[in-house]
Amino acid sequence: MPALPPFSHVYDLVARNSTTEVAVPALAAAVKVIETPARVVCSWPVSGQYGPGSRILYYVLVAACVLARKTEWLRNACLAAALIFPAVAAVHAVALAALHVPTAVDMDIYGAFQFCSIGILTAPITVRLSTTYFNNPGRNTIFLWAGIILVGLLALTVEFFRSEAVACDSDESFFTYGVSLCGLTCSIEDGPYSPMRRGSADEIYVIPEPTVMTFGTATLFCAACCIPAILSMVSMWDKILKVNWKERFGETYTDKPEEGTNGATPERMHRVNSIIRGFLSVVEIPVFGAAVVAILVVGELNFWSDPVSWQTEPMANVGTNLISHLWSTPASLVTNIHYQVNGRPSSHQPLLPVARCTCSWQRR
């Protein structure tokens, strides 16, 4: 029996029958290697509820709410689905802040921020500037919804502020995703552990610090989004009070001059305020629109960066959301057809019939 050839000969034989186009992509797919970063973080990857499929669906719903607000059945279907995404994200953000793990970061905070920030910049402005939305009795519900999103943004501000990357003390020249630990205790077996990550969602890895949207930048973004949210809620509350007063007592503007003014009347002051409000609305729409586009672009670049996209579920959970939205659309259409045929019930109709009291004590 002839002796086996040396291993180097076998390697040469394999090398002659292999091509660079096959070997290099296979090696890159098996192990992801980069230069050792200066700072790393132990983190749970972005879950499927904030995956690319869910984000694209949310963007489409928000665009439909803004562009198709005159089409009632489409508006109702898209609005119901679009309000759920940021509301759930806000509750999730509060839970993440309450169950904070000091030595690890849940990357779902980026997904919750993306949903809450776009929602709070879009929905209140659309409601206040559109009579189609604001004359609907559901405006009070949207006001409460804005309060929930504001609480979620405050929780995200705290969570981003507490998130901190540490220096990598590894002597290796290259950082391998899923292998290099940089001296941190970060694994499924050794912890850290979170009540929010159990079962199949307990995978935890050491990744480089995000560079597109750092933790400090995200903290400033969250705090900045809270300011227009508070101002929008105050403005919405003022308009709600005015509408309720008008429905109960009617118009109260008169031509009688106010004391201590140069002949100014409430009606004239109301016209001046309306003109100023119109100019501010013209400026408000492009400013908030630019802010939404900026957050969308920067957020998506951050989601597709190597640290944040590592081990992210690509299209998870989009099927459930898409099916539920497709079912809500024909349901809204059927409801709209029913109202057109049978008439819409009046919101001022009393629940119980009103009768005159004929008690004996009133006759005396």
From TrEMBL:
Protein name: Uncharacterized protein
Species in which this protein is naturally found: Apiosordaria backusii
Lineage of the organism: Eukaryota, Fungi, Dikarya, Ascomycota, Pezizomycotina
UniProt KW keywords: Membrane, Transmembrane, Transmembrane helix
Transmembrane stretches, start-end: 77-99, 111-130, 142-161, 215-237, 278-299
Domain of life: Eukaryota
